[in-house]
Amino acid sequence: MIEVIAKLPRGHIYLSGESLECHVTFAHLPSPTSAVAQSHEDAFESLAWASAQIHCYCFADSKVTRVADADKLSPYPGTALGPSTNENAKVVVSTKPKILFCDLRLSPGQTKTCTIDYIQFSCTYCSNYCVLVTYVEHIPNDSPPSYRGQLVKYSYKITVGTQRVNSPVRLLRVPIRVLPLCETLLNEAMALCNDTTDELTPTNPFMEVKRKESPLDIALQGLQNITARRNPNYYMITNGRGKVVRFCLFKSAYRLGEDIIGTFDFTVATVSCVQVSVSLQCEEKTTLAGDCNEQKRILTFGNFHEVCLGYDYVQLIVPIPLHVTPEFATKLVGLSWRLHFEFVTSTNRDIALPKMEDAHWQAPGDVTVETMVWSLPVKLYSTTPNQVAQGVVSHVENKLVIR
Prior knowledge:
2 domains, seven-stranded mixed β-sheet, Immunoglobulin-like, elongated
């Protein structure tokens, strides 16, 4: 009996363009001491081969057509590591399969040492009759992010396939989450890393050599600069009868896990506002070229509600969850974010508002109101995988038993 264990030492969350590392262990489980003595043929276990690759599956709604033609980002190699027959999905991204080993024999009581000289692979035999292989792969820069929408779903899995001699192929699928990284930032970072100007300047042998930053590190620094920059924007909200409120949003670019903070100023209002509600919404929209039947879905995450009759100022705080997907666009679907406002205003001109000297203010029993809505687009970006992993619980170890 062979046990295959796949473990992600850095967790299951990665950025597009990042390299992931997966430790795959193949162990020959020893037989119990009470078992009947086995023959020499059953004393060892043999595996013909093992390989691994990354797949991105696309699940589309029945109303969304031409999935394969519209969103096929890379050709899918026809290997034994394809999707199982019970999965109604299309493979839109697949990395090249990498061979972990060939003709592996695990025998209890026997100690082996082995080194695989392939690039990005290391293989060591342990004393407990198992072999540990480190699988390293680069996630394509143009791959779509992990996303669970109503029209389209993108799901990533590391597929580890192995086959015992004269037995069917067995697959172990390890789910991972891929966050989108702004393509513009990544392209600029790669251009900076490819710049050879510094290499032509004279070097001082007595100075400490600085580690050259990777394109991913430079892109994350650019992302930090974009989301940390405060640029207050003021919006005067009005209706047909006058000014309702002046709204201030301190910045328009946010990362996962941040709070959207703003203020409502009712001192400039000429119309009484009874209450205000704000919700964080994402708009999922198909982007098929030439498709006249465009599909659109709106999902709401988080809500702010405040009864503001008689208030001069109200502060807005809307947290951004860590499990949502930032803004992205593919050939099949596009995702954008916005703040959706609902203002309930009073049409009564003689409504009595509370004052500071009023010790006992009685709210009016009958108020005629009307509701107005307004949406404000916001930019939502990814954050570091370690920060997302703190708020999302997932298994980093998966197991497959081959009997």
